[in-house]
């Protein structure tokens, strides 16, 4: 029997430039923390090896410090680590892998597979057929040699590769590196461990993508797992269990506001988010001024709780109601004309969308300004009782005037 963890697409060194610097720093750190969690899981489960199916690093140009930190994160598991270059960290003549070797930071139990071939794990009678990428993009199936490659009798045959299974990953694939969908069968593999797709995915009973260990995109494809794989005997169907290790959950919400209850429902969902959530939210539709203000406040309150947030409420049209106008003091006069003009910019189908966006923002700013001004006025005015005491007293009867 063999048992191993299958993982891939760690993308160590990812920059997360779409977020604020402090948010990006936390997301980048999580990728190291989750590697440590994988090492702890491997030790706790007493597996024979951890197979990393490519894209350990996001770039060839990551710093020496990043390289050292990655290998230091593996220390909790003293068993075999098998690392395969992918399209982001291909085994070029000069690569992140050759730099790691020069830095002398690769642990003794870590095997870097920089050339295609077979790696034998004799202790568990397993032959790993490995197809590392030696360039970022290939047009030939690098796993083709698996079919004709002999392995010792009685050894498990496990494939390790990075690329796109034909007919399976047509949308949003990271690279065009092709892998035949029948490879596990034609090469008589017990299991084919793949990387490149960032979610864990069953291709067939012997072919699996592990997905990235820590989610890095707004895509609902089941990231944040490692696969715990057990094969009882050579030729047996593998038993595969997904084990969640990821720290953060990424959400993408595209919302349309039509009625006030839509705002209430969205505020409730926002309130449920916490420190392990990353959110991208875009809101369109139409809302009364008070509802739009409440939604903006709810988004900013969520920003204070979640790990990272990108929000775009610019497509939400703000249309003040009669109550809103009364609250603004904009029922007549110049202010009423300003509000009417801003409403018109949003309702005009021929208007520039950017003008409509700015009009909605102006209405919200106007409401905030009016509210702040009334608050300042109320704080500056003396209380009613004080004003009454300041009035001159009427002379008493018989008193000198």
UniProtKB/TrEMBL annotation:
Q: Where is the composition biased (Basic and acidic residues)?
A: 386-401
**Signal peptide as annotated in the record:** none
What InterPro entries would the database entry show? Calcineurin-like_PHP, DNA_Repair-Maintenance_Comp, Metallo-depent_PP-like, Mre11_N, UCP033093_metalloPase
Q: The organism sits in which domain of life?
A: Bacteria
Q: Keyword annotations for this protein?
A: Exonuclease, Hydrolase, Nuclease
Start and end residues of each stretch annotated as Disordered: 372-401
- Gene Ontology molecular function, alphabetical: exonuclease activity
The chain positions of domain Calcineurin-like phosphoesterase read 2-89
Keyword Electron transport set for record: no
PANTHER family associated with the record: COMPONENT OF ATP-DEPENDENT DSDNA EXONUCLEASE, NUCLEASE SBCCD SUBUNIT D
Q: State the protein's name.
A: DNA repair exonuclease SbcCD nuclease subunit
Question: What is the native source organism of this protein?
Answer: Paraburkholderia tuberum
């Amino acid at each position: 029997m063999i048992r191993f963890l299958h993982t891939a697409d760690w993308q160590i060194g990812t920059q997360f430039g779409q977020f604020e610097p402090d948010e990006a720093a936390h997301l980048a750190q999580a990728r190291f923390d989750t590697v440590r969690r994988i090492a702890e899981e491997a030790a706790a489960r007493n597996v024979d090896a951890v197979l990393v199916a490519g894209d350990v690093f996001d770039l060839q140009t990551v710093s020496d410090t990043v390289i050292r930190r990655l290998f230091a994160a593996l220390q909790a598991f003293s068993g075999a680590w098998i690392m395969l270059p992918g399209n982001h960290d291909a085994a070029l003549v000069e690569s992140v892998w050759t730099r790691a070797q020069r830095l002398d930071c690769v642990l003794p139990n870590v095997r870097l597979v920089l050339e295609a071939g077979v790696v034998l794990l004799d202790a568990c009678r397993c032959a790993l057929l490995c197809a590392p990428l030696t360039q970022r993009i290939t047009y030939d199936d690098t796993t083709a040699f698996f079919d004709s490659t002999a392995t010792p009798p009685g050894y498990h045959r496990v494939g390790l590769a990075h690329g796109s299974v034909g007919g399976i990953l047509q949308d949003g694939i990271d690279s065009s590196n092709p892998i035949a969908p029948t490879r596990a069968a034609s090469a008589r593999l017990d299991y084919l461990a793949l990387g490149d797709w960032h979610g864990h995915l069953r291709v067939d009973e012997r072919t699996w993508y592990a997905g990235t260990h820590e989610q890095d995109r707004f895509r609902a494809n089941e990231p944040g797992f490692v696969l715990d794989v057990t094969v009882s005997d050579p030729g047996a169907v593998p038993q595969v269990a997904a084990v969640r290790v990821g720290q953060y959950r990424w959400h993408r919400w595209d919302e349309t506001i039509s009625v006030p209850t839509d705002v209430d429902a969205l505020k409730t969902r926002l309130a449920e988010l916490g420190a392990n959530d990353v959110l991208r939210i875009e809101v369109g539709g139409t809302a009364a001024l008070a509802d739009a203000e409440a939604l903006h406040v709810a988004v900013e309150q969520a920003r204070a709780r979640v790990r990272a947030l990108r929000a775009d409420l610019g497509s939400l049209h703000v249309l003040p109601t009669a109550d809103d106008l009364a609250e603004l003091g904009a029922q007549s006069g110049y202010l009423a004309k300003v509000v009417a003009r801003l409403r018109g910019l949003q309702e005009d189908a021929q208007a520039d969308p950017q003008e409509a966006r700015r009009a909605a923002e102006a209405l919200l700013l106007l409401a905030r300004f009016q509210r702040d001004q009334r608050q300042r006025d109320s704080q500056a005015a003396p209380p009613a009782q004080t004003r009454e005491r300041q009035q001159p007293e009427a002379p008493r009867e018989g008193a000198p005037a």
